[in-house]
Each structure stands twice: as structure tokens, then as C-alpha cells.
Amino acid sequence: MSHYLLSVYDTENQVGGAPSTPEDRQAFMRRVIALEEEMDKAGAFVFGGALHGPDAATVVRGGTGLDKVTTDGPFAEGKEHIGGFYIIDAEDLDEALEWATKVVEAINHAIEVRPFRATGRLEDGH
Predict the structure, then answer these.
(1) Are 67 and 48 in contact (CB under 8 A)?
(2) Where is the YCII-related domain (predicted)?
């Protein structure tokens, strides 16, 4: 099994196809919960989450002491930023793309799929 990152990008705090009414938000959450349950049952779900907007970001540059610089805002200035993601286990890119298709169907928004190279410890044996 390989890990893949499924990234959801926002454009200036607006996700295309995002729900706008309470009823739409409930239906959206039901689709996302069902998708995550399906991923979990299939053994593909490793981790996922949504990020706060880029205005909540802080960038740290430099080393320690006087060399360290922190700035408010995102690392890169731009209209698009990562709004959420999944880390999944998949046999290969084709299987990752199948899960990506299900994510797109659940959230009604395009995503990016990239191989993920874990450099640290993942829990639950992943």
C-alpha cells in the first residue's frame, strides 16, 4: 500500500459547489461522513481534515534567536490555498484516483491527487 494526498483547494475562502443553506450543509456532511465511513471500512482512510483560512496561518522562517522571523498570513500569497485534505492508503495511483472520484462526488469540488511520502511515524500501523 502507498499513501496519497487528496487536496481540496479553496479560492479566496470560497469552495466551488460549497453548500449555502443549512439543508445543503446537512446533506453535504452526510455525504462526507458516508464517504469517510466507506474509506475506513475499506482500510483506505488514514487521516483527513479541513484547514482554517489562510488568514489564520503563521509562517516561521530562519533559525533560532535573532534569525527567526514569524509573519502572519500564508506562505505564498495567492487566490488559491489548501482548504482540506485526506491521506489515504491505496494499492496504486488508479485506486487513489477511484477514491478521488468519490471525494469529488461527495464534495462537488475538484481535488488534487499526489503520492505522499511519510517521513515520520503514523499511528495505527499505517
Answers:
(1) no
(2) 4-114
The torsion angle over the Cα atoms of residues 48, 80, 113 and 16, rounded to 10 degrees, is: 80
1 CB contacts (<8 Å, ≥6 apart)?
Answer: 89, 90, 91
Domain annotation for the chain: domains and CATH numbers: 2-116 (3.30.70.1060)
> Which residues have a Cβ under 8 Å from the Cβ of 59 and sit 6 or more positions away?
70, 71, 73, 74, 75
Q: How far apart are CA 42 and CA 73, in angstroms?
A: 37
Q: How long, in residues, is the chain?
A: 126
- The closest alpha carbon to 54, from 16, 20, 12, 6, belongs to 12
6-41 per-position pLDDT tens digit:
998 887 656 556 677 899 989 999 999 999 999 999
Residue keyed to cell 534569525: 67
